[in-house]
Specification:
Blueprint (H helix, E strand, L loop, with lengths): L1 H41 L10 H26 L2 H45 L8 H13 L14 H6 L29 H56 L1
Helix pairs in contact: 1-2, 1-6, 2-3, 3-6
Keywords: Membrane, Transmembrane, Transmembrane helix
InterPro entries: Tetraspanin/Peripherin, Tetraspanin_animals, Tetraspanin_CS, Tetraspanin_EC2_sf
Subcellular location: Membrane
Length: 252
Amino acid sequence: MMGQCGITSSKTVLVFLNLIFWAAAGILCYVGAYVFITYDDYDHFFQDVYTLIPAVIIIAAGALLFLIGLIGCCATVRESHCGLTTFVVVLLLVFMTEVAVVVLGYIYRAKVEDEVNRSIIKVYDEYNGTNSNAQSRAIDYVQRQLQCCGIHNFSDWQHTHWYDKSKNNSVPISCCKTAGCTGSLSHPEDLYQEGCEALVVKKLQEIMMYVIWTALTFAAMQMLGMLCACVVLCRRSRAPTYELLINGGTQA
């Protein structure tokens, strides 16, 4: 009786988890897509495309997780030994994939600062203030979005080619924090005071931590799913032996 109760409880948890896995599949794909979109906004400051590997893996894990939810629901309801075994194996593969995402996430998170430090000076040097220039669009976007100006502060603009050519003692309008600001260095109180380098690093590291915590959360859920599936499998494999013993005792 207790064994049957254990199976029923495990099956209930499994069905519930499979429903969560479907939702998790959508969340994982969303997180991966978010990383791709954000990388596109900051790609001039971070040239290493291998940073996108965790995002690619997490999207693949999301697709597999959707398949797992389908297999798991069918196998649990039917109590199919083959289906539950497949469910556990595929779930184990996704679990290992998410562990890889966590490891790669920590590796690339540590590399972010060095990558940004190497790239950001070059990007600012190539700024020309026109919308047709990719570097100019990237810098203006980042300065408005992160509310920053220059690499370390607004005075860094005085060492750029754009400043030398413009000769108007000003910084780009994207540095302005007040309405009516012209970017003039004569009114520094109208400009963002913080540099962009530290904020870009912080933003990219936050995105990587977002990926890491998402992968860790769903990896823990998958461990619970594997445990419940194993309980059902073990109980079911013992059930025929138990029934034989009962029948043998009745006949005696």
